[in-house]
Specification:
The complex is a heterodimer. Chain A is α+β, with helices and mostly antiparallel strands. Chain A has one domain (7-92): Alpha-Beta Complex (Outer Surface Protein A, domain 3), CATH 3.90.930.60. Chain A is 38% helix and 17% strand. Chain A has helices spanning 39-47, 54-64, 72-86, and strands spanning 9-10, 15-18, 24-27, 34-37, 89-90. In chain A, the strands form two sheets. Chain A has a three-stranded antiparallel sheet. In chain A, strands 1-5 form a two-stranded antiparallel ribbon. The longest helix of chain A has 15 residues, at 72-86. The radius of gyration of chain A is 13 Å and the shape is globular. By secondary structure, chain B is α/β, with parallel strands linked by helices. In chain B, the strands form three sheets. In chain B, strands 11-10-9-8-7-6-3-12-13-14 form a ten-stranded mixed sheet, with helices on one face. The longest helix of chain B is centred in the middle third of the chain and has 14 residues, at 141-154. Classes of the chains: A alpha+beta, B alpha/beta. The interface between A and B is medium-sized, with 15 and 14 residues. The structure holds iron/sulfur cluster (SF4). Iron/sulfur cluster binds at residues 238-240, 318-319, 322, 324-325, 328, 330-331, 346-347, 350 of chain B.
Chain lengths: 93, 365
């Protein structure tokens, strides 16, 4: 479950390889798992630093991307949850 | 979703069966990777008996079957193609057909149209009769294929054109797109010539395109050709050479995402096989529909179990290092085995690109 107020931080082992079209591959060298993320998700990934707040990230997305979907907030929550489930991000204990 | 068997192995559903319905084909294509016998008025080759087809379907549905692909040889050569289509319709299975289109008639098309979500691909390798017939080996087949395609369009079946790229037709890609537009095709899929069976001979004779040429074509399609047409163009390169949006985007086609663990092939003689490769590589067949229980074959065939347990982690060479290997799974295991007699050998195209130093850098570790 996603914590109410805090955001997870990225797993420092995971490599983010950005490509020419703004997409990127997230790759965990330990497990060999890899998957592609779109430019909006790349921006979220870069902001999961343990300091930036969810509201600030959402604001940045809205101002940086012309075609941010209306349900960006729920997409955001789903994406972050997915990262945690895959072990690509986690909460500090 | 797969579950777990008693011995701790995953049980994969058998979602798709590819039926290679006929041993013969009415065309004699230079690049065919199956290498069927040429069938004409004086010489007819065997087809999969209808009772075996029925028995396989009945056994496969409880194992999870949802999709059928009919291919060949040439599926419309099958003497009981109407009964086969009716059976597929009555079982509500999703239908995919690969055909050369020559034998397509309005009656056949309406029978296909009654099936669940039919998806039909028609092979056309040249935008004019001279090129197409040079590749397909039979005079007059171009006109027949276009007629077949037009019946499919009229029935709103949204056919796809498949074109295999080689030296002979590399300058006809744009013309083919215009032909597809004018005929009302839904999409064009561009395949690379695979060095298997007759395609192998073509590669050896220098009729294929180099990896660099194929990459350049991909760039040109993406940057210029695709923007000039409303028709979808699907270019079948291995995933390391595709944009991530194609695999992970909402509008991606799922291009190249390999479902090998959910597929079984059935050859025209009733043998179970990895796919049509079984016709040329006997060790990739396992059992026969007339004597063997399908569930037993699906669960216990040694080759299938090796593939399930070994993919993608046992892949070697560039495939072992590739970041796409979890979804690409070595692109085509049958092809890899054909060339190296090793299920885990890397895919030839990526292997060549890697050796030449042109494999995309960010896509491997
Ligand atoms: S290197 Fe292998 S796994 Fe990677 S894209 Fe090529 S064929 Fe697929």
């Amino acid at each position: 479950m996603m914590h109410e107020c805090s955001l997870p931080t990225i797993n420092p082992q995971v490599v983010c390889r950005e490509e020419f079209d703004g997409w990127a591959i997230l790759f965990d060298p330990d497990s060999g798992k890899a998957f592609g993320i779109n430019p909006v998700a790349v921006r979220i990934w870069k902001n999961l630093d343990g300091k930036t707040k969810k509201e600030d990230i959402l604001q940045e997305l809205k101002s940086s991307f012309s075609e941010v979907p209306e349900n960006i907030e729920s997409d955001f929550v789903d994406f972050v949850r997915d990262l945690v489930e895959k072990g690509f991000a986690g909460y500090e204990v | 979703m797969e579950s777990t068997a008693g011995r701790g192995e995953k049980i994969y559903p058998l979602r798709r069966i590819y039926f290679y319905l006929t041993e013969g084909c009415n065309l004699a294509c230079r690049h065919c990777w199956i290498d069927p016998s040429y069938q004409h008025a004086d010489k007819v080759y065997p087809s999969l008996p209808l009772n075996l087809f029925r028995s396989i379907i009945d056994q496969a549905i409880p194992l999870g079957l949802t999709n059928i692909k009919l291919t060949g040889g040439e599926p419309f050569l099958h003497p009981q193609i109407f009964e086969i289509l009716e059976l597929i319709r009555s079982k509500k299975l999703k239908l995919e057909i690969e055909t050369n289109g020559v034998l397509c008639t309005p009656e056949l098309v309406s029978s296909i149209a009654r099936c669940e979500m039919p998806m039909i691909s028609v092979s056309i390798d040249g935008a004019d009769a001279k090129t197409h017939e040079w590749i397909r080996g039979v005079p007059g087949c171009f006109e027949d294929t276009l007629k077949g395609l037009s019946y499919l369009v009229e029935a709103d079946l949204k056919p796809q054109i498949i074109m295999t790229l080689m030296k002979k037709n590399r300058d006809q890609i744009e013309k083919m797109v215009r032909l597809g537009e004018s005929m009302g095709a839904d999409s064009i899929k561009l395949n690379i010539l695979q060095p298997m069976a007759r395609g192998d001979s073509m590669h050896k004779e220098g009729e294929g395109l180099s990896v660099q040429e194929l990459m350049d074509i991909g760039k040109w399609i993406e940057e210029i050709l695709a923007k000039s047409t409303s028709i979808k163009i699907l270019y079948d390169l291995p995933l390391a050479f595709m944009p991530l949006s194609c695999m992970f985007g909402d509008e991606g086609s799922g291009c190249g995402v390999c479902k090998i663990q959910e597929i079984l092939g059935v050859l025209a003689d009733g043998s179970y096989a990895l796919c049509g490769i079984g016709r040329n590589i006997p060790e990739l067949t396992f059992g026969h529909a007339a004597y063997d229980n399908l569930e037993d074959i699906w669960r216990n065939s040694e080759v299938l179990r090796q593939i399930r347990n070994g993919l993608p982690n046992r892949l070697k060479g560039i495939c072992g290092k590739c970041l796409m290997k979890n979804i690409c799974r070595g692109s085509c295991i049958a092809q890899n085995y054909y060339r190296n007699k090793d299920l885990w050998a890397p895919f030839w195209y990526c292997d060549e690109a890697y050796r030449e130093g042109i494999f995309p850098e960010g896509r491997y570790v």
